[in-house]
Amino acid sequence: MPVNNAYIKSISGLIKASICLVLIITLICACINCVSYRIFFLLVSLFGFLVEFGFFLCYLFSLTGKLSLNWPFADFIASVVMVALSFINFCVSCYGASLRAPQDGAAAFFWIVALLLFCVDCYYGYRAWRGGSHGPAATTTVGPSFVSEPPPASGPSYPGYPKDSSQAGFEYSN
Questions:
Q1: 138 lies in a domain?
Q2: Distance of CA 39 to the CA centre of its chain
Q3: Inside any domain, residue 135
Q4: Looking at the predicted structure, is the pLDDT value of residue 149 above 80?
């Protein structure tokens, strides 16, 4: 599989990699001296990491052209959901930090960092979904592959109907 090196160097690629790193750190904060309310931290961190890492790999290996999915919209929706869940986790971890749990203070810091990164990712996802520029040299609407692709051939890609002379000049319309 060819690796899309331009995506790694793009803003979107750096944001996705940063989100994955921050979610791993929040996962570690959730696992230390785990109590009942940190299970939600754990689940949001784990599922958020899996979803964002999945998007990162799909963009990195240019799988966006091979799978039939509206990639910018799916990425945007995933980021919006993670913004909401990150805000909830930030509020709960702030409450836990007020009860003198130091790992919750660290988790609150990393959840606010994750929240900011998800907001930036939402912005870029919305721009890509609505047809705006998603980065340098992006000429495809499938996703942020950042590889210039040739323009589609003009005209239909299927052969036209043959003219039938036995029907008095009647032509099929495409």
A1: no
A2: 24
A3: no
A4: no
What is the pLDDT averaged over residues 51-56? Answer: 96
**Residue 173, domain member (yes or no):** no
Q: What is the 3-state secondary structure (H, E, C) of the chain?
A: CCCCHHHHHCHHHHHHHHHHHHHHHHHHHHHCCCCCCHHHHHHHHHHHHHHHHHHHHHHHCCHHHCCCCCHHHHHHHHHHHHHHHHHHHHHHHHHHHHCCCHHHHHHHHHHHHHHHHHHHHHHHHHHHHCCCCCCCCCCCCCCCCCCCCCCCCCCCCCCCCCCCHHHCCCCCCC
pLDDT band of residue 139 (cuts 50, 70, 90) is very low
How deeply is 2 buried, as exposed, middle or buried, from its count of CB atoms within 10 A (0-12, 13-18, 19+)?
A: exposed
User: Inter-axis angle of helices 38-60 and 11-31, to 10 degrees?
Assistant: 150
User: How many domains is the chain partitioned into structurally?
Assistant: 1
Give pTM, 2 decimals.
0.72
